[in-house]
Amino acid sequence: MNLIFDESGNWDRNTERYFVIGGYVTQNQYRIRAVMRRAVKDVREQFPSLSALPEIKANNCPSIAKDYIIRKLAKENIDIYYIVVDKNHLDYNLLESNYNRFYNYQLGLVARYIRSTNNFTELNFTIDNKSLKVGSLNSFEDYIAIKLNFGLRKQTYVSVKYLDSQHFFEIQAADFICNALWGRENYPNTDLYSPFIWRLVKKRLKFPITGFGK
Fold it and tell me: Long-range contacts for 54-57 (Cβ within 8 Å, ≥24 apart)?
């Protein structure tokens, strides 16, 4: 099974309260790649100002274009999982030198939930290479393999690919999905996009569980 993940938000304590790490699970990432490629092509044709950009990101996309892309993704056979981090409960003194490990820990919580509630014996992660992560490319792969195989006692083959989202439209799809969920968490009263994909959300995890949102 293919898991394509990204993040949305900023770890700075003076920015929006909630940070989102998440993405989608699909049996056919090549279809999502094709759907996203066509959607981006349509957007570039309608908005010439975006043509010069090497990659169209959700946070630099006109509202009508973001709406169009999210609606396209909402029609696909994908399952969405994410974790939302309440930054008001983070120890920034501890976090300062451990952002990458903390990011991997959060993504590991999502992976653990997915594996514990499904019969997938093979998890193939695709992650934007600009995401926060432990320096070694193998560290997350080893970490999650240990958690799933020994922690959950579920035999699981794990592979992780760090790719440049500029060249892989399936990662760009994860960016738009995470951005929509980030908007839902931080601006629920003006959220325009997550309602289109909310029926695809299989799990919303919270961190920390105790005190979240208070």
Answer: 54/166, 55/165, 55/166, 55/172, 56/172, 57/172, 57/175, 57/179
Q: How many Cβ atoms are within 10 Å of 206's Cβ, its own excluded?
A: 16
Residue 96 has pLDDT above 90, yes or no: no
- Which residues make beta-bridge pairs with 161? 126
Walk me through the domains of the chain, giving residue ranges and CATH numbers.
Answer: 2-207 (3.30.420.10)
pLDDT at 139 over 90: no
pTM to 2 decimal places: 0.94
Strand partners, 32: none
Mean pLDDT of the chain: 92
* Cα–Cα dist 197/121, whole Å: 26
Average of pLDDT values for 171-200?
Answer: 97
Cβ-Cβ contacts under 8 Å for 75 (sequence gap 6 or more): none
Q: Are 40 and 69 in contact (CB under 8 A)?
A: yes
d(CA 122, CA 1): 6
Residue 109, token pair as written in the block: 């919580």
